Amino acid sequence: MLFSRNFLSLALAAGVLGLASCNKGGGDFAKTKSGIEYKIFKKDGKSYSAAGAADTSGYKSRVGKIMEVHVEYRTGKDSVLQSSRKQLMGFPTFVPLQPLTQKGTEQEAFSLLQAGDSGVFRLNIDTMFARMKQPVPPQVTKYGKTLMLYITAVKIVDEATARTEAQQIQGQVQQKMAGYAKQQLKKDDVILQDYIKKNNLNAQKDTSGFYYIVTQPGTGPKPKAGQTVAVTYKGTLLDGKEFDSSDKSGGKPIEFPIGMGQVIPGWDKALPLLNKGSKATLLIPSSLAYGQRGSGPIPADAPLRFDVQLVDVK
Q1: Beta carbons of 210 and 195 less than 8 angstroms apart
Q2: Are 290 and 178 in contact (CB under 8 A)?
Q3: Residue 297 CB partners (closer than 8 Å, separation 6+)
Q4: Which label site among 78, 181, 284, 294 has the fewest CB atoms less than 10 Å from its CB?
Q5: pLDDT at residue 21 in the model
Q6: What is the pTM of this model?
Q7: Which of 217, 38, 163, 44 minimizes the C-alpha distance to 112?
């Protein structure tokens, strides 16, 4: 949970607008020969109407272009896993349209859409990863065998236009995310201060916004940027629910270079304050953890608690 990994290890993010209502009244799902169940909706003014079977005859003419989309991944029970609209602050993500070599996967789902269309797709996880010749990630299988994909195809553009728009969007997204994080940090600080008070903790606050309590001082050196550290840990939400720990790996410490962005920012900032051998509790605001995206069992905008021991500094 500490390392930055995409939920499906794919290049896509996730989000959609208005498809939940479309799905309820759109009739039965159609089905491709590869097994994808789908509903396609055509935009009619401000609303969508069911289109029946997808028309794929013109897909070859779209290959090589870029589709700007909002995508949302859900479980078979309709729980949202990822949302590109939320992750990208309302801006679309960019999907290259490639020759259809992997039927039964997301690639085929995108091929069924034209500019302006929206679609709801049901994919079998085992089939999808088998066709991509990849093992099914264990963090995916716990959500069941069905993956729901909600897609809105905003428009289709050439690569040059996509590059220009992506550069413009990147700057706007970063600006909006920075503003959001700043406001969220204030909210998180109120939550963390309340948690500290209720649990009678003698916590110190770092200027970046996290709190730490050294529960057992160490006597070794403090790690410097680039050095490899070995850490055992337990991560919990503030309600006490554990989401990850080194005990799940047999108690073996995880190792990584400090200050290199391989773990959440809160760890990169907090661990250099500890001497080798120290045990500590870290209370980390969401902006220094998984932010508004969350990660698996970690909700969006969740401040976190980590009980850690800095086992070694190399």
Answers
A1: no
A2: no
A3: 241, 243
A4: 78
A5: 37
A6: 0.59
A7: 38
